Task: structure prediction
Amino acid sequence: MDKAKQGMAQRTKMIVMTGIMAALIAVCSWIYVPLTVPFTLQTFAVFFALVFLGGKYGTLSIVVYILIGVIGLPVFSGFKGGYGVIIGPTGGYIVGFVFSGLIFILFTHLFGEKRVVKIAAMVVGLIVCYVIGTLWFMYVYAGTEKAQGFGTVLSICVIPFIIPDIVKLVAAYILAGAVKKGVR
Result:
């Protein structure tokens, strides 16, 4: 097989894998515990996609997932879909996943594909997702009877999720590495 055909085959494989990862994120979003900010396996799937596919295609899978949800397919937690989810109180966390992917791309581009780099990128990406989501949550409720201070919002939207999300990051890293070896 010549180089052009090999390149095309590789790109086709990555596009298919991107779609599969977007579907995985959707399925993991459906596995949830309804809270003010739902507890889902979505974080696991997002970081699994980034480690498994790499920053570029992993981030693309996150964007595909969000776009599918925005056009109305019920891929968000609680089998919800539509633009209203993104502009709602938890939409910042969903959009924050794109920034997690961009951070993963930046870290691996600047510092290489070493384990410590990927783990650092995942942790920083999660923190950025928390920041974006929390600020958006506060913005949506600002000026309403549901408005709350930063500390209260952190206690509702971030602190209960820290340990479970760290477990999800570790699981995503380990499983993505194992699956990657098996797929080869």
Remarks:
- The beta strands are 32-33, 39-40.
- The chain has a mean pLDDT of 94.
- The two ends are 18 Å apart (CA to CA).
